[in-house]
Amino acid sequence: MTPKTDLKNLTLPALEQFLQGQGKERFRALQVFKWIYQQDTHSFDEMTNISKALRTELAETAFISNLEPEAVEQGSDGTRKYLFPLDDGTSVEAVLIPIEGRNTLCISSQVGCAMACEFCLTGTFKLTRNLTTAEIVNQIMAVKRDLVANPPSLLVEQSDFEDDDSDDVQPESPAAIRNIVMMGMGEPLHNLDNVIPAIQIMIDGNGLQLSNRRVTVSTCGLVPEMGRLGREIPNVNLAVSLNATTDELRNRIMPVNRRYPLKELLKACKEFPLPGRRKVTFEYVMLGGINDTPDDAKRLLKLISDIPNKVNLIPFNEHEGCEFKAPTRKAIDAFHKYLIDRHVTVITRDSRGGDISAACGQLKGKLEKQKTA
Q: Of the residues 106, 117, 269, 360, which is catalytic?
């Protein structure tokens, strides 16, 4: 028996091909696509502008998947952490950060991660599998549903991923998701076959209707895949987890650097297609006494000086079983000031969700411990 097709794995062109293969008109795909993404429909029976016969045929060959959170934690600052169980018994996380009604949602691309960065909690879970396109977009849809039911309080502060050339003038609904950042569990560029269609659905005017300026894809430095992302989705934002200013240190804390050292990585950053005034975001996790010195700040400035850039400084979030420590406030402020004084756009990311399991992998790890206790 042929397995049913999850329609959320299909972009609009792919859905057109799927229905044409069943002898259906092309415009039916647009109708179904809008029902799925604009009406959040889970059942073909709800598609009232489609004939009953077609709805019956679709139910025989396809289905519309969904995710519901197993756990939701909300911090005093409005940050929400979601844990989503998957059909195979695994789970992934997403984090919502409300910022003046401009909600940023951080989503996952894999169950676990193969990159083995020394400071990353997700890396301790190892890679179980890639998420499907449907599982990626379903995180967004589930959180949107929750926001409608439970609108967040508005928080006034600057987003790490606010677009520099924004032309938005109208206030947004507290239930709107403004920015998507693929910085949750997993390495997005390690799963491009599913991430690229997911982004195409996100930015489709008939799909999730997000601006490509509002989608940021993070990577630890998979250089060939950066080239592919730039070719196939040239207008999304790129964030690079740099975290070290020498190959010696980056080799130690980020094994990917042994394959693609700093020179190759920075060349790929320089070549990544960025329209208009957009910049590559360099993520820099500050590890106390390891990469937070004035010399590190000087080397960082030199490394990125010929690339349109902005820097997110991320004080390390200490977690059980990791030897690294958070940097001191003095070290953070000095690093930040050095870059600011030299006209670099810098945001020091405040710790969000500190009273909940907001760091990647924390909620998953906590619940797994409870289940095995």
A: 360
- pLDDT confidence of residue 163: 54
Q: Are 360 and 119 in contact (CB under 8 A)?
A: no
269 is catalytic: no
pLDDT of 160 reads: 60
Q: Is the pTM value of this prediction over 0.70?
A: yes
Residues 30 and 177 in one domain: no
Looking at the DSSP bridge assignments, the partners of residue 85 are 91
CATH of the domain at 28: 1.10.150.530
Tokens of 270: 């320089």
Buried b (16+ CB within 10 A) or exposed e, 258-274: eebebeebbebbeebeb
**Residue range(s) defining the domain that contains residue 342:** 71-372
The share of the chain scoring above pLDDT 90, in percent, equals 77
- In this structure, are 126 and 251 located in the same domain? yes
E strands, 140-224, where?
177-182, 215-219
Higher pLDDT, 122 or 313: 313
**Active site includes 93?**
yes
Residue 225 and residue 302 in one domain: yes
The catalytic position among 93, 135, 187, 225 is 93
| Greater pLDDT, 174 or 111 | 111
Position with higher pLDDT, 2 vs 189: 189
Verify that 128 and 32 share a domain, yes or no.
Answer: no
